[in-house]
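Letters spell out the chain; backbone shape is given numerically. Take this protein:
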Amino acid sequence: MKHRLLYTLLTLCLPLLCSAQSQQDFASIFMARHAENSALSCATVSPTMMEKVMQLDADKADKDTRKIIRSLKSCRIVTCKNQAEADDLYNKALTLVRNNAGRYKPFDKYDGKQLYVRRRGKSIVELILLTNAGGTLTIVDLTGTMDENFVKQLSSDNETKR
């Protein structure tokens, strides 16, 4: 009887789990809609690669830094260096965010940069940075489990410049 109840619960939860895993991040959606016939490029960086790029040695690494990196699933960096396309693509990115206002919420705005977050409960599961400066569009999309302190730490260098 217990097994039957467990199987029933698993059967009911399976579609929810599958749909949660199949959700695309902002960068994937944006690239799928606008990459064809444009100068957009996208690079994905895993947490392991982030550690290597930052040259974090297991013995020397700051525990907080390592914990932050491990909480991330991926970092996607979308760029367009074609000045003729960058403004239009930036406006399309803003439109995509605004058209999905139930999913993405504004978090902060500074120096021509805009931060948006997607939450699951109290956790931030996606952080999007949109900027268009010097004729270059840049979208940085972090996915993982983050909190507001993490996001504030990422933008803390900019707070002192405001």
